[in-house]
Fold this protein.
Amino acid sequence: MDSLQAFAEAKLAALEAKSLKRTLVETRRLDGLWIERDGRRLLSFSCNDYLNLSHHPALKAAAVAAVEAHGTGAGASRLVTGDHPVVERLEARLAAFKNTKAACVFGSGYLANTGVIPTFVGPGDLVLVDELAHACIWAGAKLSGAEAAAFRHNDLAHLADLLATRRAGAGKVLVATDGVFSMDGDIAPLDQLSDLCAAHDAWLLSDDAHGVGVVGGGRGSAALFPTARIPFQIGTLSKALGGYGGYLCASKAVVDLVKTRARTFVYSTGMPPAVAASALAALDLIEADPALCAAPIAKARLFTRLAGLPEAQSAVVPVILGEADATLAASRRLAEAGFSVVAIRPPTVPVGTARLRIAFSAGHPDDEIARLAAEVVRLREAG
Ligand SMILES: *Cc1c(COP(=O)(O)O)cnc(C)c1O
């Protein structure tokens, strides 16, 4: 066997032995709620489609009309020939929605963080990242060549300590966090983070992938903290907005620099017009319907009340079981009961904190939530 095959097979076997091998399971999403897998219909609590917009008629119609009018692909990087007016319209709309001067869209949220962070910091600089922040924030920090260090989750005293001891030795300092934490569902104290950053001349980046459409009346976690100054507001179009793509909302100078220098923007093909058109339709719905945006948290809170868990702060509720194999078994049990609930294992979450990650959406029926809560209570009692 050649060395490449030997490496890949040994690595897979080692991961398999630790219940850490991942496999794709072909899944058909039937609508924004139900999926079909292995010939069975399951109610999904594993999608980030918090408002069930991925199958909304208005989004589909907008995408179809844009395909008919403009075709399927952008054709090139936006700096070459791929800058479509629909994408420009989406950026203006996102900036207004987030109350910033400008915005820039990316191919995905992952590409937004890995493009933005290295545009602003590099060798000699310091990036302080909440230890539970999303993998792509860490990827961006590492790619930048700046020193990257973790502060304990939502621990302002620890961050203050790090800033006090390390600010002077660094050039520029970026503090980066999720707004709503993707695997824990809790919320960063953006007002106090912003105060700390102001006191130490550090720049705050918040990634609100799980906040938009769900918290702050649909405008995201920054709207919960009106006094917070967040110069980098990152997010995704792929979750509550039901489509695909990422964005940065920021000042005009920051966005102009991103469009000149961020490598995941400059050297990557522009967003397909239909993707931008469906995101615009999603923003129409989110801005018009506060009751829709309030629904996912209400559903999550119904669940946490019935399951005897701490009250949900967002649409994401973790049920921490600890070991990877027990969590996989729990996920399989829930599938037998008709629910898709994903098991989240290291390295996505720290070792020993494998969990069921339950994502609630506006359309989840209350009786099914009650049935899921009863199953989860039974699992926790058994474990
Ligand atoms: C999902 C997620 C991303 C990645 O966004 P994509 O558009 O799926 O690439 C980035 N940041 C956070 C916090 C996320 O939860």
Summary: The chain has two domains: 18-47+290-382, 58-287. The pocket of pyridoxal-5'-phosphate is lined by residues 108-110, 134, 136, 178, 182, 207, 209-210, 236, 238, 246 (CB under 6 Å).
